[in-house]
Amino acid sequence: MKKATAGIHHITAIVGDPQENVDFYTSVLGLRLIKKTVNFDDPGTYHLYFGNEGGQPGTIMTFFPWAGAPRGRIGAGQVGVTTFVVPQYALNFWEKRLLKFNVSVKRETRFGEEFLQFEDPHGLHLEIVAREEGPKSEWEFDSVTPDVAIKGFGGAGLLTAAPYKTADLLENVMGMEKVGQEENYLRFRSHGDLGNVIDIQLKASPRGEMGAGTVHHIAFRAKDFDDHKEWQKHVAENGYFPTDVKDRDYFHAIYFREHGGLLFEIATDPPGFTRDEPFEALGKNLKLPKWLETYRSRIEDVLTPITVRGIQGS
Predict the structure, then answer these.
(1) Cβ of 262: how many Cβ atoms within 10 Å?
(2) pLDDT for 164-191, tens place per residue?
(3) Is 307 contained in some domain?
(4) What's the domain range around 213?
């Protein structure tokens, strides 16, 4: 069975205070809060989703925020850096904007591309690259207009305890194309136009430890539910151990641990985020799966109120 993912569906990270998380990704990075729900395995904790105007696959950054959570350590078995992509010629805008919010920025060149590298308030490693491919985001916040707005993911950099085994997985199981090696990195590309570049760092890193400021898992795209079932079978036939299909309300998911220690997910493009609230209201109200509605009042009492707001400098 020949399979090829279109690229990244979403990336999920662990962070600290939820209001700080909302402030940074909306007021600084200009993303839309598209879903406010809870961690289905820990309903006393938010699960927050940010993305473009509709939260299309390839744009979705999600978070489990725990106020006071101990800082993790980024290392082998994790996504080392999450890459956002912006339109061509927008890097100078973003460098100025980040500095305006007192976010330290440095520039790095990799595979002939220039990246702005920085951290979010809880230590998560992020970067921005400018590329022509991929549709512009139609979401506007403050001075972040479609001409400069984050379109979605440019890709991710993986830290792995077994880089060549991870590379084999990307190429021969996930169907990505190996496009080159440059010093310490291998690069792979998918056929999609967002979330389509994965760089594997070849240099060894200490083993990562989960906590605030680390990525929990990276999810790749399945086009529909039938394709998802095929992926589950395909992954198993190639020596990995995918979970049963999990219904996450906005997509179906399977998970497996790859040989370098990273937790991979494969998630369906449908049904999307308008299944339980209209496009205009995305992210405004706390949405719960049906089986948790009975406990709504109890859950709302536990969760810290959050709001999308402009912050100083915006």
Answers:
(1) 24
(2) 999 999 999 999 999 999 989 999 999 9
(3) no
(4) 8-302
